[in-house]
Amino acid sequence: AQSVTQLGSHVSVSEGALVLLRCNYSSSVPPYLFWYVQYPNQGLQLLLKYTSAATLVKGINGFEAEFKKSETSFHLTKPSAHMSDAAEYFCAVSDHSNYQLIWGAGTKLIIKP
Amino acid sequence: KAGVTQTPRYLIKTRGQQVTLSCSPISGHRSVSWYQQTPGQGLQFLFEYFSETQRNKGNFPGRFSGRQFSNSRSEMNVSTLELGDSALYLCASSVLAGLELSYEQYFGPGTRLTVT
């Protein structure tokens, strides 16, 4: 069965520093992978997705993620953090058996001034 | 296109009561999924409806139910509310992109339910 692990329930970085949010998945078939962001008191918004095309995927707000099959990872990065990036980030993997997404537990990104 | 809408946005209920939440998907989207989000449990899948049929179900008690109408609008109902049902309830819609499933879900803003 598919599963998603997000390392670190909270990640704290200084403004201007590199953001790295980790996501590892398990899947018996080639997956689709997603990163979503949730700002306080809002729903989730799609940041980017991997659907078996280019392994380096660029998303909104300067974020990107790289699909590494050998490491079963799909880590999210941003070169320079902004205060507005403070939010919760969710990684998800497709479950082809029931057309659903399997969600990670989420990582809260904290930006220090 | 209008996004996913959920009503009401906020709700306060008393233990033992029942509640109905509504979700209108993006036009053309036939799949609607419901999630419960709490600080302790994260994002938990409740159920998914596709073309008026429940296609998938999460691990929640029978007090949680839902339905979907012919226009793809969906409702979820929680009966005999418990304090632990206090949560943000999120609805998401998705569409089949031709012959390839997109899996991409579009979320509404959620309904914040408080049970006292």
Strand content of chain A: over 45%
Helices of chain B, by number, come to: 0
Low-confidence stretches of chain A: none
**Cα separation of the termini of chain A:** 41 Å
Q: Profile the largest sheet of chain B.
A: 7 strands, mixed
Global outline of chain B:
globular
Oligomer: heterodimer
Count of alpha and pi helical runs of chain A:
0
SSE pattern of chain A, N- to C-terminal = EEEEEEEEEEE
Structural summary, described in words:
The complex is a heterodimer of chains A (113) and B (116). With 113 residues, chain A is mostly beta strands. Chain A has strands at 3-7, 10-14, 19-26, 33-38, 44-50, 56-58, 64-68, 73-78, 87-95, 100-103, 107-112. In chain A, the strands form 2 sheets. In chain A, strands 2, 4, 5, 9, 10 and 11 form a 6-stranded mixed beta sheet that branches. The model of chain A has no long low-confidence stretch (mean pLDDT 92). Chain B has 116 residues and is an all-beta fold. Chain B has strands spanning 5-7, 10-13, 19-24, 31-38, 42-50, 53-57, 64-68, 74-78, 87-94, 96-97, 100-101, 106-107, 111-115. In chain B, strands 2, 4, 5, 6, 9, 12 and 13 form a 7-stranded mixed beta sheet that branches. In chain B, strands 1-3-8-7 form a 4-stranded antiparallel beta sheet, with no helix packed on it. At the A-B interface, strand 5 and strand 10 of A face strand 5 and strand 12 of B.
Task: Name some characteristics of this structure.
heterodimer; A: 113 residues; six-stranded mixed beta sheet; five-stranded antiparallel beta sheet; 57% strand; globular; B: 116 residues; mainly beta; seven-stranded mixed beta sheet; four-stranded antiparallel beta sheet
What's the gist of this structure?
The complex is a heterodimer of chains A (113) and B (116). Chain A has 113 residues and is mainly beta.
